[in-house]
């Protein structure tokens, strides 16, 4: 019913594709937030007829990326160990990434560079200085919320000081700044970035992969009985996701539904983070209800979401868009989400929205959706309706191309020939 796939338009009347370089300072492709968002945008640009070059690390997870040219730096260091957050190796990789980006910009005569996140923007700035190609910065988060949680820079006070410098300085390196949420837009404006340089666009996903999916044997693979109430969490397990709140919420659920299960369905493994969560689960007395199915590729995720009764997004104060939230919505699943991650979803209409930092309220909301099947179906249907109305990746990528063209125009780099879609 909801399946839809855009057809790739062909250049006509002498128009040519836009040549876009995306600097992805992360493993790519990989099955978590930022790399997943990059893949969605890159593939959608190709579907709209444009030429896309992703410049990225050697580190990646094997998975298809349709129609996108991928250029990798040399394999140096722990390229098979995919982790989220800063590392010593990544500092060296970012230097190599800059030289690779300069080379690709010259070789393929790029029209615009899209630097994703802080490292991508800094590499993009140096590329712009070396080649003159306009730079668009994709602001997907703020460092003041995350940097200190990685424990890479110590003490935390120093990490927060560096975060302030990055949050204020990096956006000023670009010709235009893109963001996905009003929270990040307002943050940028409050740091002094000129409003006429900031574009807010929606994050889009490939909705078709979640359409009309059957759970199959997903419950059996998770070790869950057919009648067990099942809460599914997907994505990385970093500290800033506040999994501890979700585990505390499970105490409320298990008090009423002792056979309920919480499954962490992961597309990326991190043993250290898993051990930390295990310790919290034991301390809360819910470890018997916590499951870790085998790590799966992102392409196998839809049946696991289809098998769930509900899903949860416990992260508070989230400046960006949780991709997991959009996936849940596209799958038609009722979501319990904190206000800070809710992206304007209305409580009791498209989701059950709870206050930030309130684990008990989250537990009560999970209980409500697990015990009221009519409510669960209504929330899931409405969430899917919103996903298709607002977060289709082809529609949102048209907004992205508009921003690219503005960056090219304001820097005097708009080509004489007509660009596909702008003839």
Detailed description of the structure:
Strands 3-2-1-4-5-6-7 form a seven-stranded parallel beta sheet, sandwiched between helices. Strands 10-9-8-11-12-13 form a six-stranded parallel beta sheet, with helices on both faces. With 423 residues, the protein is α/β, with parallel strands linked by helices. It has helices at 33-47, 88-107, 117-131, 143-146, 156-169, 182-190, 218-222, 243-256, 271-284, 301-307, 323-330, 359-371, 373-390, 393-410; strands spanning 19-24, 51-56, 69-72, 112-116, 135-139, 176-179, 198-200, 230-234, 261-265, 290-291, 310-313, 335-338, 352-354. It is built from 14 helices and 13 strands. The model is unreliable at 1-13 (pLDDT under 50). It is globular. It has two domains: 19-204 and 392-410, Glycogen Phosphorylase B (Rossmann fold); 208-390, Glycogen Phosphorylase B (Rossmann fold, 3-Layer(aba) Sandwich).
Q: Assembly state here? A: single chain
Q: Report the uncertain regions.
A: 1-13
How many alpha or pi helices?
14
Based on helices, strands and strand pairing, what is the structural class?
Answer: alpha/beta
Radius of gyration: 21 Å
Helical amount = 40-55%
Strand order in space, largest sheet: 3-2-1-4-5-6-7
User: What CATH architecture of the largest domain would you give?
Assistant: 3-Layer(aba) Sandwich
Task: Output mean pLDDT.
Answer: 88
Order of helices and strands: EHEEHEHEHHEHEHEHEHEHEHEEHHH
**The number of domains:** 2
Largest sheet, in brief, is: 7 strands, parallel
